[in-house]
Design brief:
The structure is a homodimer.
Chain A (H helix, E strand, L loop, with lengths): L2 E4 L5 H10 L9 H14 L1 H12 L3 H4 L2 E2 L1 H10 L2 H19 L6 E4 L5 E8 L2 E5 L8 H14 L3 E5 L9 H9 L4 E3 L3 H10 L9 E3 L4 H10 L4 E2 L7 E6 L5 H12 L6 E6 L2 H14 L6 H11 L1 E4 L3 H11 L3 E5 L3 H5 L7 E4 L5 H6 L25 E8 L2 H17 L3 H11 L1
Parallel strand pairs in A: 1-12, 5-6, 5-8, 6-7, 8-9, 10-11, 10-13, 11-12, 13-14
Antiparallel strand pairs in A: 2-7, 3-4, 4-15
Helix pairs in contact in A: 2-3, 2-9, 2-10, 5-8, 6-7, 7-8, 9-10, 11-12, 11-13, 17-18
């Protein structure tokens, strides 16, 4: 049974705080294992990759091949149904259109002191994309990671993906073909992330690594943050649905289950102002679970991490939602705009009754790689900016340095940095 | 003696690669110490802070006081010279003006499928600023960190700074007063970073932590990345100066030394196309060093990490500079614009002979917190964006979900996620 809270209860503040503070992230101490893997790949390169792949994925890269060939990707795309191909192409086109609007503007101008000041954005040279094998091998994730890099103007995109027992998901290859990825390595885990960061004889190093993965992959990215750029520290997926009694309980139940079915650690939380509606949604969830092919995961996740929070009204709900800073937030009410105006922290917000979160997972356009575990307090979904960097620039002439140089000399001297002061003072003579 | 390389030499490629790959970052294994400090502060809060402060900074917080009072800051500002106050105020005004232009634009619109799509930026609730004590207690750094947070709209800014033996730099307090900081805690080191991230009874937690520090502080920020947002993984400062023979060797020598004097691990590199000029700069550096109050640091840094690279021409230099991806790049040539067009990776670029890097450290306006250690390949200087996050949003009506919903259903089914499919399909009935 999921947690059930009522804001009218005396113990509500403590119980809600416990919900906010509950950690759903793997407490597994993988950091030592990962650190050893990174060191070994850095020292031994491809030999370490081959060894780890034999051990964890049970195939010999020197037999099965290190790379997926373009011909395999073309064949995979030709092998899927027309409907699916159309769906992938619609998704790619819409994601591209949304991300095009994220491209930052350069600036350049001369101010009243005669100082020229500006900023110039440019793409990183190379991006590495991790694509999981197994349960979480999602072509939609591939598109969501590659397209922002493409829009940013990244010229080289290298993908890594584990192929357990040599098998690879053809839908992922079809998506790779649509996204135009030409470099795909059949390696996974922390070792693949290390190869992308440090480079090996076969795999040239990249500048930024993005993409979802298990606890080892996430920890590898965290440890290599600074050697390369990374997208974010990602945790289990989550949704908060704010819904009034005018919604169809079946719809809201499906929305909650669309997170629960991801992983046993996923979290789905309903906020509602109506007890009977809360009961109806809870009943609909129980009815729907057995019909899902993902029922085992969904049932575990809903029972362990699901919650229904009964509030007096939605003005009371919104500050509570902000404390959760959810990855996904559905506002299924008559006037979602009014509630959205009160939201400070959320990764992505789905406005109104006809906007289920899943439409954003696939085809709406915004990125589905979003901050989890309350990180929407300080971070944003994946974007074009994650694949770009900004160079500031300035230029002074004789008049400009006379205008602002003396202040620099005064501050440098006060900070005890005489060469700083001299480099300006010499030009003022 | 600094390294001297000539691109005409047969061993140049290998020698330059060695220069690029040389690590100047502390190899000291502080990660275990830091991890223990973080755990203890998380568990014991203020008691741990008091204990570490007694041990490392040699004063008792319960006697000397936990916080710096607003009165102390006002007194510090009143105690400095008018020139210095004017310089700080000019710096603050110019830094504010530059960062105002970084404020991102929200987006909101309806596309041809009838889908409303947008993105809304908002500030984090609270930012924590680390200000070092001792050698690197720079009021300029304080301004460079606080002002972007203020411009972003952060409502709470909490500063931490160690006060070894109870002493605090009055110039830092004066800058804090100018920047309007009202919350200053007299704690430093990894323990202060932990307090900002986790919160204690006295210090409420923040969402983003920025500011320079020693190896312990840097490692604490790295380990807490994900619990909070951080500015960047920072390493020793560095400058590359590209200069032709028309420059005054004394000016260029001072520019090189303005990095060398920061820290023994700092790096200054000159690229020039003229042997005699290279010799003249080298001689000027040797002449200037003994005159500096920072001569011991500058001499060590220049000898250990300095380099002069002789190139045939500057078109040859620019790809080499890009491999270094320097924090600071001075282009002291007749047509700096032409060289700047070739730069792909640099934190900040200083165009022309009258633009010494030090002017950017203090009063020009762009941020002086910049990526080091080749990280300009993938990251940017501190900006308003580091204190903001973006929430994407979308809204579909019945017509829009009929336009794009079927593709979402197809993809969800292909990915084996039936609740995702159901949440859309139910709304299509």
């Amino acid at each position: 049974m999921p947690l059930r809270l009522d804001s009218r209860d005396a113990d509500f503040p403590a119980a809600f705080t416990a919900l906010v503070d509950a950690r759903r992230e793997a407490d597994e101490d993988v950091s030592r294992d990962v650190s050893a893997i990174l060191k070994r790949v850095r020292a031994e390169g491809d030999a370490a990759l081959a060894d780890y792949t034999a051990r964890f994925d049970r195939h010999d890269l020197n037999v099965s091949g290190w790379a997926v060939t373009p011909a395999e990707c073309r064949a995979a795309l030709e092998g899927i149904s027309g409907d699916l191909r159309d769906a992938l192409e619609l998704a790619a086109a819409r994601i591209t259109a949304y991300h095009e609007k994220q491209k930052p503007q350069d600036s350049d101008g001369v101010d009243s002191a005669g100082v020229r000041l500006g900023a110039r954005w440019s793409a990183v040279d190379a991006a590495g994309l991790y694509v999981p094998g197994g349960r979480a091998a999602y072509p939609s994730s591939l598109l969501m990671n590659v397209i922002p890099a493409r829009v940013a103007g990244v010229s080289r995109i290298a993908m890594v993906t584990p192929t357990p027992d040599g098998e690879i998901n053809p839908l992922v290859l079809a998506a790779a073909q649509i996204a135009g990825i030409e470099e795909i390595w059949r390696v996974g885990g922390a070792q693949a992330v290390a190869a992308l960061a440090y480079g090996t004889d076969r795999i040239r190093p990249v500048d930024v690594i993005t993409g979802p993965g298990n606890a080892w992959v996430a920890e590898a990215k965290r440890q290599l943050y600074g050697v390369v750029g990374i997208d974010m520290v990602a945790g289990p997926s989550e949704i908060v649905v704010v819904a009034d009694a005018k919604n169809d309980p079946e719809w809201i139940a499906a929305d909650l289950l669309s997170q629960s079915e991801h992983d046993p650690t996923s979290q789905s939380i309903l906020f509602t102002d109506d007890t009977a509606f809360a009961d109806a949604v809870a009943a609909a969830v129980e009815r729907q679970i057995p019909r899902l092919s993902t029922h085992a995961v969904a049932a575990t996740s809903w029972a362990a991490n699901g919650a229904i929070v009964l509030v007096r009204d939605f003005d009371e709900a919104m500050p509570l939602v902000d404390r959760l800073a959810p990855e996904h937030l559905e506002l299924a009410v008559d006037d979602p705009e009014a509630l959205f105006a009160q939201v400070r922290h959320a990764g992505s917000v789905f406005l109104g009754r006809m906007t289920p979160e899943a439409v954003g997972d696939y085809v709406a356009g915004p990125n589905h790689v979003l901050p989890t575990g309350r990180r929407a307090r300080f971070s944003s979904g994946l974007s074009v900016l994650d694949f770009m960097k900004r160079t500031s620039f300035l230029s002074l002439d004789q008049s400009a340095i006379h205008a602002i140089g003396p202040a620099a000399v005064a501050l440098a001297r006060a900070e005890g940095l005489p060469a700083h002061a001299a480099s300006v003072a010499l030009r003022l003579q």
